[in-house]
Amino acid sequence: QVQLVESGGGLVQAGDSLRLSCAASGRTFSTYGMGWFRQAPGKEREFVAAISWSGRSTYYADSVKGRFTISRDNARNTVYLQMNSLKPEDTAVYYCAGDQFNAHSSRWYPTSSGSWGRGTQVTVSS
Questions:
Q1: pLDDT for 15-46, tens place per residue?
Q2: Tell me, what DSSP letter sits at residue 32?
Q3: Taking Cα atoms as reference points, which of 65, 89, 88, 96 lies closest to residue 3?
């Protein structure tokens, strides 16, 4: 397994941008499908975006398509989530996840062997 640590969250206003980072330990990062999920208070955790091992394929939830961009730098063992045009409804704790089960669609979810970060808070004020 890889260890994942998120950073980059914060308090912003509607319309602003943030970039989240997820740093991974371990030498197998390039063989992990990676993704971002979020959980708002009182709601279930939901898929946000995912990226394949190579970075050539990306997948997004409809609610963020066109506003968020997931990317990865395998040389730096890091995956990013660029969030533009933020809305109050984007407020949540954002979690990074990884699994050797490659990201293949917007239904991707780590298996029981996958890894999760502890999350970073994103708050968007109106």
A1: 999 999 999 997 788 889 999 999 999 999 99
A2: -
A3: 96
Answer for the pair 51, 35: CB distance below 8 angstroms, yes or no: yes
For residue 51, which amino acid is it? Answer: I
Mean pLDDT, residues 90-103: 95
Which token pair is 83? 């969030």
**64-103 as b/e: b if 16+ CB within 10 A:** beeebbbebebeebbbbbebeebeeebbbbbbbbbbbebb
Give one word for 55, left, alpha or beta, with left for phi > 0 and alpha for psi -120 to 50: left
Q: Is 126 helix (H, G, I), strand (E, B) or coil?
A: coil
Are 22 and 117 spatial neighbours (Cβ–Cβ below 8 Å)?
Answer: yes
Opening angle at CA 118, ends 53 and 102, nearest 5: 15
Residue whose token pair is 């990676």: 34
Give the pLDDT score at 27.
Answer: 75
Identity (one letter) of the amino acid at 124?
Answer: V
pLDDT number for residue 1: 79
